[in-house]
Structures are given as C-alpha cells and as structure tokens.
Specification:
This protein has 27 helices and 12 strands. It is mainly alpha-helical. The chain starts with 7 loop residues before the first strand and ends with a helix. InterPro entries: Anoct_dimer, Anoctamin, Anoctamin_TM.
C-alpha cells in the first residue's frame, strides 16, 4: 500500500510526439529518474505523472538535520519521515531540478510544458478527522485541532490558525468592552447637556452647506431624540439620523477605550509570543534554523552545487526605494481623487430635485465615497500585488523566505496606504482646510472643499469606517467562498465526460486506482506560494482597522470578532474541500508579520491620540468646561459645566459677506448665520479660544501618546515573551547534555 503513495503529481497537456514541449518534458522527467525518482504515467484528457522520491533522500535529510548527540548514539537509526516533510523535500527538489537546457520547473510551467504540480490530498485518518471536526460551519465555536492541522498542512499553516484563534479569542474581550462603551454612549446621550442644547437650538440658524440652492438650516435638525417621529416615512432617513448622533461615540468613554485598546494590542502580542513559544517547544522547533534546513536540502538535491551567497546593492536598493515612493504617491493621488469625488458629489446632490438628497447631500457624498473607496481597495489590491512582486524580483533575494519577507513589507505598505489614505484625510484634514463662509478653499476655483458632517467631524469617520468594514466582511467573504466553490464545480463538470476508447491499453489504464484520486485532486482549485500569505494579509489589515481608528468606531472589535468566527471555518473549508493540498512549510513563528503587528500597535497609539485630539470635540469641550464655562466664570456649582458650550463653539457670519456667485437658499429673518469654528465676527480671524484649544490639543496628544506608549512598554515588560516552563525545559536539557559530556570525559582522565 505504501508503494502506491505518491509524493507529487505533475500535469501536462498531450503534446505531439517530437514537439519542443514534449522533448522538454521528457528531459525534465529524465533528470528526476537520474535522482532515483519513481515516475508513473496516467493518460486521460491530460497526462498525469506521479512522482515518488527514493528513501535515500529522506535518510540524508534526517542525518543532516538530526541532533549531533543522537547521531553518536545510533548512527543507523532512521525514523519514519512525516508526510509533510516528504512533500516539502520533494517540492524543493522539483523546483530546483535543472534540465540540460538550464531550465527549471517554473520555466517549463511558464512555457506550458507542465500545466500544474501539486501534492495529493490523501484519504488518511488525519484528513477525514479535519474534514469532519474542523472544516464545517457547525464547529464554529469549537476549539481548533492545531496538532492535527500541523500533521496535515505543516507548521506554518498550523501557526496561522493558532494565531488567528488566539487573536479571535482575545478580540472577544475588546468586542465586549467596545460594545459597552457604545451602548453607554447611547444611554448618556439622552441626558447629555450638550445634546440637550443641540436639540433645543431651534432658533440657531446655520450657514448653508453648499454654494447653490442649499438652504439655511437649524442646528436642532441634527438632533434625533428631540424629534418625536424622525422621518417616519423614510427608514433610510432614520438610519442617517441615528448616525448623526456624534456624542454616542465622542465622549469620555471613547478616550478610555482608546487607551484600553493600546494596552490590549500590546498584551495580545505578548501573550501570543508566550503561546507560540509553548507550541513550538512542544514541536521541538524553538531553536530550529531555517537557513540550515535550506542548505541541507540544497546539498541533498545537488551535492556539487555552490550555495547562493547574500548580496546587496545600494544602487538597486535606491531604485527600489524610489519606485516604492512613486507607488505610494499614486495611492495618495487616488485618495485625493476620492476627495474630489466627494466635493463634486456634494454639490450635485445639493442641486438635486429630490428633497431627501438635498437635505442629506453631505452624508450621501460620504456614503457613496465610502463605497467607491471600497471598490478602489479591491482593484488596487491586485495592482499592489503585481508591483510588489516586480520589486521583489528586482531585489533578487537569496532564499524564498527572504523573498517572502520583502514582499510582505512592500505589499503591506501599499495596502496600508490604499486602505487608510482616505480615512486619514477624513480624520485629520476634512473640515480643517476648507476655509470659512465668505472665503472657502475651492477646487479649480469652482467647487468648495467639503465640510464635516453637521453633527461633527467624527461622524464622517464613523460612517466611512462602518461602511468599509461591513463591505469588506460581507461582500469580500462571500466572494472569497463563492468564487472557489463555483470554480471547483465548473472544473468538476468540465472533467466529468471522459473519453471512451476501444484501445485495450487505455481501458486498462482507466482501471488504475490512482486515476480517480489524481483527477479529483486536479479538479480542485489551484494554490500558490502566497495562498497563506493572502489570509495573513487580510487579517492584518483587519487588525489595523480594529486598532488604529477604534476611537471613532468602538464597534470595530465586535465586527472583527464576528467576522473571524466565520473566517476560521471559511479558510478551513477552502483548504480541505475546495483547494489542492498546500505544500507544507516548516516554521517556528509567524515571521515578519509579528514586526508588522507591533508597528501597527504603535500606529494605533498615534492614530487614536490624533483622533481624540483633532477629530473629536473632547478637547474643545474640556477647555470650555475648565476655562469659559459658568462653573469657572460665575463660580456656579448648581449647573452643568458644559452649559453654553454649543453657542460658544459656533462663530457668527454676516450673510452680506457671502461671495457674489454664492446662491444659498431662502435667507432667514436675521442678518447672520452660524458655523462651526472659533473666529471673530468682524474680520473672521481666529479667536483667543481657538489658540487655547490648539495648545490643549497638542498637550493632550503628547500626554496621551507618551502615557499610552509607557503603558505598552510596562505591559510588554510585565508579560514575559517566553513562559518560565519553556525556559526551565531548555535549562534542564542543557544540564542533561553537559552531564552526558562530562561522563565521556571522566573515565578518560582516570
């Protein structure tokens, strides 16, 4: 039975006898035969070649990478090689076997000499267990069998699912805290003095939000709870009104939650390091050397081959750096294009014949802009991948691991700017560079830059985050499952009708027990070297959304938690049922992704500090309470210290000072309107309050970031990376080895 197990299958089209492709295929297979490989050919619509490596190859591998002490004790002992190790070694040899024409397998695949190459999903006990107990939707709340995953897919895949499970587990804590903060914001909103003032400001006339046909509006229009029946005729309007409640998310609880998430991100990574140390120690891989293993496989493949040396070129690095900067500039340019879209869309919605669109022009522009942003993310993800791969080819890395690390850094950088450039603009620039009534900043001298949502700038960020996360976690996940599922069904249907031949040989070949298994594996979707990378990238981008702007969207951890419960099973189903078997890879950590996650943790502290200091109204409100409120000016103790804040935060604009080509709606009875800013009524220069708030924002930002970073450092120190049990295990092992060496020395002295 063991003799019928095959390590790999190569698939080729049926080429004409004597054709160039047929000759190249034969040369490659001959090279494998010279190395002792057993090759079996099965013909159907395609040619299938099963390859099995000789035992000597695995014996060499075990000998080279065994513990030196165990070699001395029993040099002839050879353990059975795990299937994952067999596949990994055979894959290395296949990829590095060179024909007399100096062509390797990837060159032959580019020339369509071979169409596919893959290891087989074997009908073994581990696979059946994983299919029944892991790769099913009903097991969504069950613990993952990490050891079984390792036995079937190798250590790298097992570590991915161990990390994803640990991340999801701790995300549950952040999700509960975020939900409590959000619900508390809704509860407090109804009794908030600021909210009451907004709802009661029925005589506060606000300036129009656009140049043409936009009406003057009342500040109380942004209140939800003051209206007994807010737009009962329109569910969408009710939804938009709910989103306008900025104080649900812009409150003291959000500041504490942002600090909590900074600590959570650090504790999560520190606890993961401990978890990873325990797991890889159990696998006896804690001190595993990837470079040593690769050198060993190079020698097994070709004893005469010289190893590739590390190389570095400052000229090449400079070129790559410049190209990366150009790509980043392009991505920032796309973010600018989205800004221009929102500006033009706001103007067009404001001039619409629909009353609903006119009234909600700003919100509709933000929402459609968010959808457009999601579409650009989908498109640019494909572009970013091609550019990153091209730049990696220019670098000429020595090993696949080095290439993967370089690719990871580049693709994450590109994806970060793709996903967050527009959010950064909304968070820190929207409504701050657009000027003021009578002197607006305009694009092409025509369209004025958009303003923040009437209820506050943080509402725009909330809407953008909510839409992008919901779209990414619904549409993207549905497509991630449906596309492989449909592709698998189509491939299966296409392969179903078989050729019938009267030739005795072909009929006998159809009886071969391997044929059905090879065909069923071929009908599964193709995997590539970056299949697991894609899953990691998706989760790391989600981690960025969950931490960097969480102060503006406390529900982000909850959405991520719900998504991950499905993501784990979705990935399991894809790997077990819809895709060919992934080539197992050995690993003792998640690689450079850990450094990326740590960098995101620092960005989260900076991002949330900036959101609270610049985007939210938290600092202006605190400055008012402790400087200009009745509590300070009148020494009143029986009133809420935020009384009068709304009127204090609005500046006065004389209607007669509008630009000549501005045509607002019907003018109010008064001669003035109000707008959000701190400017004098006579010359529209900034007031003293503006500079007080500006100084307070900077002070808070510096204080918050230093405090959060100190807490992160303390948390990192408080939670050791490696558990004491693991350290003691290595200590005992070293002690035992030294005692053995001493026993060898002592008799010789006697």
């Amino acid at each position: 039975q063991d003799e019928e197990k095959w390590d790999f299958v190569l698939v080729s089209n049926i080429h004409e006898v004597g054709s160039e492709k047929e000759i190249k295929r034969k040369k490659f297979l001959d090279e494998l035969s010279k190395k002792g490989f057993t090759i079996k050919k099965i013909e159907d619509k395609k040619l299938f070649y099963g390859v099995r490596a000789p035992k000597q190859i695995f014996q060499k591998y075990q000998w080279l990478l065994r513990n030196p002490d165990s070699r001395l004790q029993d040099p002839n002992a050879h353990q059975n090689t795990p299937v994952t190790t067999r596949i990994r070694i055979v894959n290395f040899i296949l990829q590095n076997t060179t024909t007399p024409d100096l062509e390797k397998l990837h060159d032959l695949m580019k020339q369509k000499v071979f169409e596919a190459t893959f290891p087989l999903h074997e009908k073994e006990e581990v696979r059946e267990f994983l299919k029944e107990k892991w790769a099913r939707w009903r097991d969504i709340f069950c613990q993952q069998p990490i050891e079984k995953i390792r036995c079937y897919f190798g250590e790298k895949v097992a570590l991915y699912f161990a990390w994803l499970g640990w991340y999801t587990y701790l995300l549950g804590i952040a999700a509960v805290v975020g939900l409590v903060v959000f619900v508390a914001g809704i509860t407090v909103f109804n009794s908030s003095q600021v909210s009451k003032e907004i709802c009661e400001a029925s005589d506060t006339i606000m300036c129009p939000l656009c140049d043409q046909k936009c009406p003057f509006w009342l500040l109380s229009d942004t209140c939800t709870y003051a209206k007994a029946t807010p737009a009962p005729h329109c569910p969408i309007m009710l939804f938009l009104d709910l989103l306008q409640v900025t104080h649900m998310i812009d409150n003291e609880g959000t500041v504490l939650f942002a600090m909590f998430m900074a600590i959570w991100a650090t504790v999560f990574l520190e606890l993961w390091k401990r978890q990873r140390a325990t797991v890889v120690t159990d696998w006896d891989l804690y001190r595993w050397d990837e470079e040593e293993e690769e050198l060993a496989m190079e020698l097994i493949n070709n004893l005469q081959q010289d190893t590739r040396r590390y190389q570095h070129s400052y000229f090449r690095s400079t070129i790559i750096l410049l190209l990366v900067l150009v790509m980043i500039a392009v991505l920032i340019g796309i973010a600018h294009a989205l800004v221009i879209y929102r500006v033009i869309a706001t103007a067009l919605f404001a001039q619409s014949n629909s009353e609903f669109l006119r009234e909600q022009a700003n919100t509709m522009a933000v929402m459609t802009g968010a959808v457009l942003h999601y579409i650009t993310i989908v498109i640019m993800t494909k572009v970013n991948r091609r550019v990153a791969l091209y730049l990696c080819d220019l670098e000429k890395p020595r090993t696949f691991s080095q290439r993967e690390n370089n690719f990871t850094v580049k693709i994450f950088t590109f994806q970060f700017f793709t996903n967050f450039s527009s959010l950064i603009y909304i968070a820190f620039f929207l409504g701050r560079i657009n000027g003021h009534p009578g002197n607006y900043v305009r694009i092409a001298g025509k369209w004025r830059l958009e303003e923040c949502h009437p209820s506050g700038c943080i509402t725009d960020l909330f809407i953008q985050m909510a839409i992008i996360m919901l779209l990414k976690q619904t549409i993207s996940n549905v497509m991630e499952y449906l596309i492989p599922w449909i592709a698998h069904k189509l491939r299966k249907k296409r392969q179903r009708p078989k050729k019938r031949s009267v030739m005795l040989g072909e009929e006998e070949e159809a009886e071969d027990p391997c044929k059905k298994q090879w065909l069923s594996n071929y009908q599964l979707n193709e995997v590539n070297v970056f299949s697991l990378f894609d899953e990691f990238l998706e989760m790391v981008i989600q981690y960025s959304f969950t931490t960097i702007f969480v102060a503006a969207f406390p529900l982000a951890p909850l959405l991520a938690f719900c998504n991950n419960l499905f993501e784990i099973r979705l990935d399991a189903i894809k790997m077990m049922r819809l895709r060919r078997r992934m080539v197992p890879r050995k690993a003792n950590d998640i690689g450079i992704w850990l450094q990326v996650l740590e960098a995101i943790g620092i960005l989260a502290v900076i991002g949330n500090g900036l959101v609270i200091a610049i985007t939210s109204d938290f600092i202006p409100l605190q400055v008012y309470k402790y400087t200009y409120s009745p509590c300070m000016t009148e020494n009143s103790t029986d009133v809420d210290c935020s009384t009068g804040y709304i009127n204090h935060s609005l500046s006065v604009f004389r209607i007669q000072d509008f630009e000549p080509y501005t045509k607002p709606g019907l003018a109010p009875t008064g001669l003035c309107c109000r707008y959000r800013d701190y400017r004098n009524a006579d010359d529209y220069s900034h007031t003293v309050q503006f500079w007080h708030i500006f100084a307070a924002r900077l002070a808070f930002l510096i204080l918050f970031e230093h405090a959060a970073l100190c807490v992160k450092l303390i948390a990192a120190w408080y939670v050791p990376d490696v558990p004491q049990s693991v350290k003691n295990q290595f200590l005992e092992r070293k002690h035992s080895n030294l005692r053995k060496e001493l026993r060898w020395v002592m008799p010789q002295k006697v």
